[in-house]
């Protein structure tokens, strides 16, 4: 027969596992976002440099724009994953969906 303390421990383990899954998914999503951002910034700056009219301020503006776009695009899946983990719900489907949409 299982005690209440044992059941509570299992719930905590599931909650921790869900948080870990969400954290791992978020790390993968952010890494993928950074890879895309870096590649696209490099492409854009190379094109601007080829024209010979890209100042340091413009380069910085392109990089800031890319950072903001990635942050805005990833904020929704990040909120969803964090909310699922904070609610103590271990929802592998949410993690898998977020990874399929925003991960590798």
TrEMBL record:
Coiled coil: none
SUPFAM superfamilies: Glutamyl tRNA-reductase dimerization domain
Compositionally biased tracts (Basic and acidic residues): 79-93
Superkingdom of the organism of origin: Archaea
Region named Disordered: 1-34, 78-104
Stretches assigned to the Tetrapyrrole biosynthesis glutamyl-tRNA reductase dimerisation domain: 20-103
Any one GO BP annotation for this protein: tetrapyrrole biosynthetic process
Phylogenetic classification of the source organism: Archaea, Methanobacteriati, Methanobacteriota, Stenosarchaea group, Halobacteria
InterPro entries, A to Z: 4pyrrol_synth_GluRdtase_dimer, GluRdtase_dimer_dom_sf
Entry protein name: Glutamyl-tRNA reductase
Short name of any one Pfam family annotated for the protein: GlutR_dimer
């Amino acid at each position: 027969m299982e005690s209440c303390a044992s059941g509570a421990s299992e719930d905590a383990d599931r909650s921790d596992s869900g948080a870990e899954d969400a954290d791992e998914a978020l790390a993968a999503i952010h890494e993928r976002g950074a890879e895309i951002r870096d590649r696209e910034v490099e492409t854009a700056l190379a094109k601007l440099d080829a024209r010979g009219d890209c100042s340091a301020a413009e380069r910085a503006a392109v990089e800031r724009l890319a950072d903001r776009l990635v942050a805005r695009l990833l904020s929704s899946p990040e909120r969803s994953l964090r909310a699922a983990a904070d609610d103590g719900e271990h929802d592998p489907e949410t993690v898998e969906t977020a990874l399929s949409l925003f991960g590798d």
